[in-house]
Specification:
447 residues; alpha+beta; Alpha-Beta Plaits; 2 domains; ten-stranded mixed beta sheet; eight-stranded antiparallel beta sheet; 12 helices; globular; Acyclic terpene utilization AtuA family protein; AtuA_N
Length: 447
């Protein structure tokens, strides 16, 4: 199998895909998205890569798959895997096929869940919280703008068995589309899932990091990973990637069980390739499907500023208190109550990345950058409060101030930027379906 990149639209060298096809593949795949960019994309239904980049990557993969008569499988299509994302990529496939004169059978695996369906799981006691989450409540379900389930390999295997050559899946467990193709070829779950874990991020298991395509050979007793460009898969680089995005270094929990890598052996089998063996798969007592949901919070407006004022910097926290009080009073004059908005000032150069968890507190920076962030119930409130906040940052007095104007540098005009709708993730739960395909209906079409 070959994976072109970590996300559809992140790009890859065309020569690397061609090299993989010459080597021989039974499947071309790509993980189409992620929850990493945050809840906005799930809630809004929009992709987080450019359509131009997505179409470029997709076109080359589609032409190669049809020419070589192998399946093309993409999971979490469109970035977040909701229905708008899936339909976006499906239409892109149809357009490319028309332009290139391609003919094939396509399957769409839908992953978006209705509130009514999720409420049934809650009422029947077939939902469980993950981590330190509270049990899933009906009101949380009702507030959700969009809910998706993370599809396992079974719907992909069913679509392959029903003759689809191009399969686009909604939100999926990242390794699932690759594991599905290997298990459809009668390979055991353990190496199949491990291959998926390697392939889900393109050539990330290779060194040095950069665009490439990863070729993985799956056998009953292990997998061999090799990049197609000028990079190398080494035992260290592959072992390092097996820790990727996982709370345990050796236990990878998936919809139908656990991939155990504690006894894996990593061998360099050529200058560019590493073989891994010793992985184990333990089936779960209950099949679970993880849910992700985005809940609407409000509207955002932001402004940027920076200062080098040596009198302000040592007392900036006191200054922020003055700014907040000034904004509160001016907002009240506009009939905007404190509960109608949230004002956050991120301070870069001091603790803008770690916030309250920043361990280094003894260094005094010579300059600070401020990201002023307002989230409000309505867009006009957000715009009003960000304008008040930016003005207050510019013109508020503080003890010892010498420069009466001009000690804040604003890089943009307009200085206040509308950032659109704001969402938050509201579910980190699993549900227990009666069948692995129950939540993921498959739709076939001739393209």
């Amino acid at each position: 199998m070959v994976s072109t990149s970590g996300i559809l639209g992140y790009g890859y060298p065309e020569a690397c895909l061609n090299a993989a096809m010459e080597r021989g593949v039974d499947m071309i795949g790509c993980d189409g998205g992620s929850s990493d960019p945050g809840p906005y994309y799930l809630g809004s239904g929009k992709p987080f890569v450019s359509l131009r980049a997505m179409r470029r990557d997709l076109r080359l993969m589609l032409i190669a798959a049809i020419r070589h008569k192998v399946p093309l499988v993409i999971g979490t299509a469109g970035g977040a895997g909701g229905e708008p994302h899936l339909q976006l990529v499906a239409q892109m496939v149809r357009d490319i096929a028309r332009d290139e004169g391609l003919h094939f059978k396509m399957a769409l695996i839908h992953a978006e869940q209705s509130q009514d369906r999720v409420l049934r799981f809650v009422r029947e006691g077939r939902s469980r919280p993950l981590g330190r989450m509270a049990p899933l409540e009906e009101e949380t379900v009702r507030r959700a703008t969009r809910i998706v389930g993370l599809c396992g390999p079974e719907p992909y295997m069913r679509a392959l068995g029903e003759g689809a050559q191009v399969i686009l899946g909604g939100r999926s467990s990242d390794p699932a589309p690759f594991a599905a193709c290997a298990m459809s070829a009668q390979l055991p779950p353990a190496p199949s899932w491990y291959a998926g874990k390697m392939l889900e991020c393109g050539a990330l298991p290779a060194w040095p990091k950069g665009p490439d395509c990863l070729h993985v050979t799956v056998r009953e007793d292990g997998v061999t990973c090799e990049p197609m460009g000028d990079k190398r898969c080494t035992p260290i680089s592959v072992a390092n990637h097996s820790l990727h995005e996982n709370s345990s270094p050796v236990r990878h929990v998936e919809p139908g069980g656990v991939l155990d890598t504690s006894d894996c052996v990593f061998e360099q089998v050529s200058h560019k390739a590493t073989r891994v063996s010793g992985m184990r798969w333990t089936p779960a007592d209950d099949y679970t499907v993880k849910l992700e949901a985005a809940e609407f919070v409000g509207h955002r407006a932001v402004s940027f500023a920076g200062t080098r004022d040596p009198i302000l910097i040592p007392q900036v926290d006191h200054f922020f208190g003055l700014v907040r009080e000034l904004v509160r009073g001016k907002a009240d004059d506009l009939d905007i109550a404190p509960e109608d908005y949230r004002l956050t000032i991120h301070t870069y150069g001091r603790d803008g990345v770690m916030g309250a968890r920043e361990p280094v507190r003894n260094a005094r920076p010579h300059e600070l950058g401020f990201l002023i962030d307002v989230v409000a119930k309505e867009p006009d409130i957000a715009q009003a409060v960000i304008a008040l906040s930016r003005t207050s940052m510019l013109h508020s007095d503080f003890p010892g101030r010498l420069c009466k104007e001009g000690n804040m540098a604003i890089p943009f005009s307009p200085s206040d930027l509308a950032a659109g709708e704001v969402f938050r993730f509201s579910m980190n739960h699993v549900v227990l379906p009666e069948d692995p395909c129950e939540l993921f209906p498959i739709e076939h079409e001739a393209v």
